[in-house]
C-alpha cells in the first residue's frame, strides 16, 4: 500500500487514527491546517485546508486510502464530491468515512446522508463509520466540558432515552483495521460503547467514579438551539447537535452494537474506564 491520508489529523478521532497507523508501520500523511501539531516521528505532516483547494493535490498524491472527516461547511456535500472526484484522479482506492450515528434515518436533505451518498456512488472501495456520541465530548469544551467544570451540569436533549457512548480511540481502532485491509467494503458500521446510559444514569456514573456531583438537565431542541446560537456556535454545528438530539429521543443511540469487538478483537472501553482516566478534567472549577 502507498500512503494513508488522514484528514483532520489533529481532531478527536484523527489523532488516534494517525497514532495507530504509525504503530502498525503504515506510511501516514497527517493532514491538518496546523501540521506543526503533528509530532509522530514516522508521520508526514501535510498542510491541508478544506477551504483552500490548492492544498488538496499534495495530500492526495501517492495516496491509496483516505480517512475522511467532513468539514463543517454549508457547502459540505459539494466539497466532499469535488474532493472524492480528485481523489479518484490521483488513484485513491479506498475511503473510510466518519459519519454520524443513525445517519440513514435522516431526511434526504441532511448533510450527513448526502455526504454518505457521495461516497457510496463514488465507485471506490468504501466503508462508512456511524459512531455514537464520543466519550471525549464529556471533557471537550465545545460540548459538555465547560458546562461540567463551570456549572456542574450536563444539558442534553434526550427525552429520557439512553446513549451508548463510545471512546474515540475505539472508533480509531476500527478505522485503522479497515484502512489496512479488513474487508468491510460497501458497509456502514454502527459503532457504540458496551453499555447505554440515560442522562440521569450518566451523571450518576460521573459522581460515582470521579466524586463530582453533576446535575442532569433535560433541554428541548428549541432551547438547545437558542443556547448554542447565543454562545456563538455555527449554524452547521447547531444543526448537527440538534440532529443528534432528535436521534437520541427516537432511541437511535440506545442500542449497543458489537462491531468494535468483531473488527478489532477487543471489547470497547467502558464509560467507567474513561471517567477514571479523565477524572481531573471532570472536576468543578474552584470558586464556581
UniProtKB/TrEMBL annotation:
<dbReference type="Pfam" id="PF13460">
    <property type="entry name" value="NAD_binding_10"/>
</dbReference>
<feature type="domain" description="NAD(P)-binding">
    <location>
        <begin position="9"/>
        <end position="179"/>
    </location>
</feature>
<dbReference type="InterPro" id="IPR051604">
    <property type="entry name" value="Ergot_Alk_Oxidoreductase"/>
</dbReference>
<protein>
    <recommendedName>
        <fullName>NAD(P)-binding domain-containing protein</fullName>
    </recommendedName>
</protein>
<dbReference type="InterPro" id="IPR036291">
    <property type="entry name" value="NAD(P)-bd_dom_sf"/>
</dbReference>
<dbReference type="InterPro" id="IPR016040">
    <property type="entry name" value="NAD(P)-bd_dom"/>
</dbReference>
Amino acid at each position: 500500500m502507498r500512503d494513508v491520508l488522514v484528514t483532520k489529523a489533529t481532531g478527536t478521532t484523527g489523532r488516534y487514527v494517525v497514532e495507530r497507523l504509525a504503530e502498525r508501520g503504515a506510511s501516514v500523511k497527517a493532514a491538518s491546517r496546523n501540521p506543526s501539531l503533528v509530532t509522530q516521528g514516522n508521520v508526514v505532516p501535510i498542510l491541508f485546508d478544506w477551504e483552500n483547494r490548492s492544498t488538496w493535490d499534495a495530500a492526495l498524491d501517492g495516496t491509496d486510502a483516505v480517512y475522511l472527516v467532513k468539514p463543517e461547511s454549508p457547502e459540505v456535500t459539494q466539497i466532499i464530491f469535488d474532493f472524492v472526484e480528485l481523489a479518484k484522479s490521483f488513484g485513491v482506492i479506498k475511503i473510510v468515512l466518519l459519519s454520524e450515528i443513525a445517519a440513514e434515518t435522516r431526511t434526504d436533505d441532511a448533510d450527513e446522508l448526502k455526504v454518505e451518498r457521495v461516497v457510496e456512488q463514488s465507485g471506490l472501495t468504501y466503508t462508512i463509520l456511524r459512531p455514537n456520541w464520543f466519550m471525549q465530548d464529556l471533557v471537550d469544551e465545545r460540548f459538555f466540558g465547560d458546562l461540567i467544570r463551570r456549572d456542574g451540569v450536563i444539558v442534553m436533549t434526550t427525552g429520557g432515552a439512553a446513549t451508548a457512548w463510545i471512546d474515540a480511540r475505539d472508533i480509531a481502532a476500527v478505522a485503522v483495521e479497515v484502512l489496512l485491509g479488513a474487508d468491510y467494503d460497501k458497509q456502514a458500521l454502527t459503532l457504540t460503547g458496551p453499555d447505554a446510559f440515560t442522562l440521569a444514569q450518566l451523571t450518576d456514573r460521573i459522581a460515582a467514579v470521579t466524586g463530582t456531583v453533576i446535575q442532569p438537565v433535560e433541554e428541548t431542541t428549541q432551547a438547545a438551539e437558542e443556547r448554542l446560537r447565543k454562545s456563538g456556535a455555527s449554524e452547521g454545528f447547531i444543526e448537527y447537535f440538534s440532529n443528534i438530539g432528535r436521534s437520541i429521543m427516537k432511541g437511535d443511540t440506545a442500542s449497543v452494537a458489537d462491531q468494535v469487538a468483531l473488527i478489532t478483537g477487543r471489547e470497547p472501553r467502558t464509560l467507567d474506564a474513561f471517567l477514571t482516566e479523565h477524572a481531573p478534567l471532570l472536576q468543578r472549577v474552584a470558586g464556581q
